[in-house]
Amino acid sequence: MEMKDNYDVVIVGAGPAGLAAGIDLAKEDVNVLILDRKQEIGCPKRCAEGLGLGWFNRLELKPKKEWAVQPIHGAALYAPNGEGVQMKRKEVMGYVLERKMFEKDMAIQAAKAGAKILLKHQVISAKREDGEVILTVEADNQTRTVRTPLVVACDGVDSLTAKMLGLNTKLDLNETDAGYQYEMTGVSGYDEHLLHLYFGTDIAPRGYVWIFPKRNGTANVGIGIGAYEEKTAKYYLDKWISEQDGLANGSIIEVNAGAIPVGGFLDKMEADNLIVAGDAGHMVDPIHGGGIGIALEGGRLAAKHALKAIKSEKYSNEDLEAYTPDWYNTRGNELKKRLKGRHLLEQLKDDDFNYLAGSITMDEALKIGNGALTKKDKLLLLSKKLVTRPGLVKIFMKYMKDDSGMPKK
Ligand SMILES: Cc1cc2nc3c(=O)[nH]c(=O)nc-3n(C[C@H](O)[C@H](O)[C@H](O)COP(=O)(O)OP(=O)(O)OC[C@H]3O[C@@H](n4cnc5c(N)ncnc54)[C@H](O)[C@@H]3O)c2cc1C
Q1: Which of 62, 385, 395, 398 makes the best surface tag, with the fewest CB within 10 Å?
Q2: Ligand 1 pocket, 279 CB below 6 A?
Q3: Whether the CB of 183 sits within 6 Å of ligand 1
């Protein structure tokens, strides 16, 4: 093993969160080690690879053609009865990525800045001793330890590192979606410049099926459903694919599966010698399950607070605790509001979706989708649409009144 005995920071997980943190810390001349249990960065991907333009702007990311492989101009949403609402613009609104290339590009940046990255290195235990953390790492059937005053846990949705250091990151089943996906080629019959989302209780209970086009008849075709469902995500996806003319004869070139945290935001994302970021800290959009941009942003924020700790050589819970409110102010508070939106959507019946799809025009959908309407205008538009649906009015009124973002029993 090329691992030294001590590092200023050890980042567990070389996904978007860990790599983003690693780049920023290495650029500040911090002696940083990034460990990942995988044998290839970004692979397998456990992701549909969609990233909205807002994230490129916010994070000052420039799309590169080797990883921003498919420009996307909007989305098409399909109601249970098959009726679609399309939101398509001339401008590019985001990209479908080739994530392994994206993450390798980030890993190169981190290594160039001075970070050490070790793959096939799995953290199997973490404990505190004399104000530091000792991580036990398994690689090539050997174990070794590494010491650090600060661990940044970016080890994804099934993170154990934070738990091993006493931080409660347990994810409630109700706040978890089960994801299953095929990367398929030889598929046709859909607009390659749109993300396609299909809703319905029989299609994807509490979730949706997606087609995220990549290029030349290749697409990520996947599903996310409530993790508590009796039948598996694979069952629903296979059933749906078999009913689609343009997909049934396609070939599967990759299979991905993974859990998605869709809520359960943490009250506390740091402890002595520890900061948690990305999926490990449940930093995911609760409505659509997207987490790449949020993980990149969270990783950077974790790096900012890690750097402050390193400069002051103070690593206690109190020294790190500004991180949690900083994240809520940056992103978490907005995500809590979106969680409220998820709870609203969960109350809609198939009939409601059919009704909305049939009554909202493409122009209106575009205005709602691109944020062109004020809250008041949105309300006005929705109330016009809902006037004949008292059941829906009730649900929307409850949604408007409840500002907590928290689930109502
Ligand atoms: C089916 C599916 C589809 C999705 N589609 C989208 C999408 O289209 N757009 C979007 O924005 N988001 C999507 N997401 C969510 C997105 O993939 C995640 O939010 C994102 O990957 C989170 O990044 P991360 O760095 O926090 O974690 P991860 O990308 O999960 O990285 C964690 C890393 O930690 C490593 N690790 C774990 N434990 C250890 C250990 N003990 N020792 C060493 N290494 C360890 C893992 O190997 C992994 O590489 C999807 C998720 C799923 C499951």
Answers
A1: 62
A2: yes
A3: no
Query: Sheet harboring 274-276: ordered strands across?
Result: 116-118, 32-35, 9-12, 151-153, 274-276, 270-271
Distance (angstroms) between ligand 1 centre and the Cα of 291 equals 8
Burial class (CB in 10 A: 0-12, 13-18, 19+), 405: buried
CA 248, CA 168: separation in Å to the nearest integer? Answer: 43
Tell whether ligand 1 has an atom less than 6 A from the beta carbon of residue 176: no
Give the mutation target among 10, 23, 37, 102 for probing the ligand 1 site: most ligand atoms within 8 A of CB.
37
Cα–ligand 1 centroid distance for 15 (angstroms): 6
Report the C-alpha gap between 107 and 151 in whole angstroms: 18
| Ligand 1 and 286: CB distance under 6 A | no
pTM: 0.92
